[in-house]
Amino acid sequence: MLDEPQQTATVADAPGFVVEPFDGEKLHRLVPAGFDTVVARLSDSLGRLSADEVNVIAADADGHEAFRATVQARLGSSGFIILGVIDHGAWLALFGHPGRLERWFVGNPLIAETMIAEDRVAGLFAPVELLLDEVGPEATRITIVRPSTLIGGGRSATLDRIIAMLDAKVLALIASAG
Predict the structure, then answer these.
(1) Cβ-count burial of 54 within 10 angstroms (0-12 exposed, 13-18 middle, 19+ buried)?
(2) Are 156 and 37 in contact (CB under 8 A)?
(3) What is the pLDDT of residues 80-117, one digit of tens each?
(4) CATH fold of 25-177, please?
(5) All structural domains of the chain with their residue ranges
(6) Per-residue model confidence as pLDDT tens digits over 27-47
(7) In sequence order, which residues have a C-beta less than 8 Å from that of residue 172 and are 6 or more positions away?
(8) Residue 84's closest CA among 121, 38, 52?
(9) pLDDT (tens digit per residue) in 113-148
């Protein structure tokens, strides 16, 4: 497990906090398909399991192997499950902002375990988030922050290997949308 960041800085609005700057990398993919089509394509390769259900499975499991088996049985063909959705478009429409906009939480607790075992702060960035934005009748933009720009940072070769695999899996999931 990685140690606490050693870099400290004086920050006027956050005295006593350790500051660890990092640069995230946003990736956008414009899919030439309607929002419903993109949602269907992504959903076809995702298992479904809410974050609350993951907690119940963990509480009921008789050890990590039972947890692993239950989660693996629920994974989609992408190796991910959708843990939740925030439908920003539903409430934005009330303010006169048209178009659908959803924030998806997509992950795999078994991958998360391998990352968090190396660096507990990786838990801040698990699961991965996808933003699905209806930009036209036949156009949907998918945006993510590349996991490897949030987690690891070269402090652990093991973690960097796991994150590279996660990057590839997330990009493959998005590519499956078209």
Answers:
(1) buried
(2) no
(3) 999 999 999 999 999 999 999 999 999 999 999 999 99
(4) TATA-Binding Protein (3.30.310)
(5) 25-177
(6) 999 999 999 999 999 999 999
(7) 78
(8) 52
(9) 999 999 999 999 999 999 999 999 999 999 999 999
